[in-house]
Amino acid sequence: MNTSLDASDLAGRAAQLDQTDPLGRFAAEFVPSDEVVAYLDGNSLGRPLRVTGDRFASFLEREWGSRLIRSWDERWMDLPLALGDRIGSLTLGAAPGQTVVADSTTVLLYKLIRAAVDARPGRTEIVVDDDNFPTDRFVLEGVAAERGMTLRWISVDPERGVTVEQVRDAVSASTALVVLSHVAYRSGYLADAQAITEEAHSAGALVLWDLCHSAGVVPTELDEWGVDIAVGCTYKYLNGGPGSPAFAYVRRDLQAGLQQPIWGWMGASDVFAMAPEYRPAAGMRRFISGTPPVVGMLAMQDMLDLIERAGLGDIREKSLLLTDFTLDVVDAWLAPLGVTVATPREPERRGSHVTIRHDGFREVTAELWARGVIPDFRAPDGIRIGLSPLSTTFAELLAGLAAIRHAMNPAAG
């Protein structure tokens, strides 16, 4: 902990980090806002790219306005699979034919959890941790009630996350499915997905990973790790916009044996046969239900272009530099004011956000928002500093942290 750094030291360091940042040029490609001093919530909603306005205009005039219904045959029908393959290739470590874009995160979780537990007949338990995101826990409660199953809760330290040892102790011959988040939404703890997956498999269970806080910022190797199923959203680090559809990954050899419960015409083997009974399509199309949300899939295409240009490895490297800098500033400026860190300090054990805690942060967050500094608050006492490496500069980060210090202690400057 270094509490000796003053404002000029930190400003100089931020300037140097920005000058030497190989990804710094990308920040100018995002839509600016005169109302925002520092945007520290990229882990909840990514900023839009300037070029996306042109994509929307072209879509309106050409694909929708001129080609009209012909666009379904020309591009839209295959877009969920083509875009899924691109997400898989660029961010998930997934070979083609295993990822699809469809529905919301909640709906995809329901579909794949139901399919997974039904694929393990005779097993009566689902393992989940008690600090997982509410959607995951709520969907699991509903599926467990539907299927007469038991949830086996792993009790975790909310400033850390689920460990391999805890999973080893929780799984058994009764476990049908393990559902965990790769990056904990509250603390930013990065789970050892490969080792945990191996532990679940040793008990004969399937594993579903929630990738909402890692897709596009933390490299994953789903194929190499032997992951069974994964779900993730696209409006955080994939910058798909508010309410953009989620993606699902299902390992190729599992696809034919999983029957998802929402049978819609777009998941049928022959979409236009208007058949009297449902027969699921082969491959990932079977996990689609209704008409694909084409408009919701536009913006993320531009962010995927940017990720491809930048390289996910370099994105991860900058993410760690940003979180390291955050911890140094918190230690110097905020720890003396009673702020504590609720995120692992080991770089290899954290994602791309840092959570800090203080009893007064609910009121502080409201003041920050009014001043154009945008982190997010997580009850009961946490502020998350969400860092999207391609849109966030070190100077912007420092300005946001300075605003937190000022809100807590106006005399500090």
From TrEMBL:
Single biological process term from Gene Ontology: anthranilate metabolic process
Cofactor(s) listed in the protein's UniProt record: pyridoxal 5'-phosphate
Reactions accelerated catalytically: L-kynurenine + H2O = anthranilate + L-alanine + H(+); 3-hydroxy-L-kynurenine + H2O = 3-hydroxyanthranilate + L-alanine + H(+)
EC number: 3.7.1.3
Molecular function GO terms recorded: kynureninase activity; pyridoxal phosphate binding; transaminase activity
Keyword Hydrolase: yes
Keywords associated with the record: Aminotransferase, Hydrolase, Pyridine nucleotide biosynthesis, Pyridoxal phosphate, Transferase
Pathway listed: Amino-acid degradation; L-kynurenine degradation; L-alanine and anthranilate from L-kynurenine: step 1/1; Cofactor biosynthesis; NAD(+) biosynthesis; quinolinate from L-kynurenine: step 2/3
Domain of life: Bacteria
GO cellular component: cytoplasm
Family: Belongs to the kynureninase family.
Function: Catalyzes the cleavage of L-kynurenine (L-Kyn) and L-3-hydroxykynurenine (L-3OHKyn) into anthranilic acid (AA) and 3-hydroxyanthranilic acid (3-OHAA), respectively.
Subunit structure comment from the entry: Homodimer.
Protein name: Kynureninase
Biological source species: Lacisediminihabitans profunda
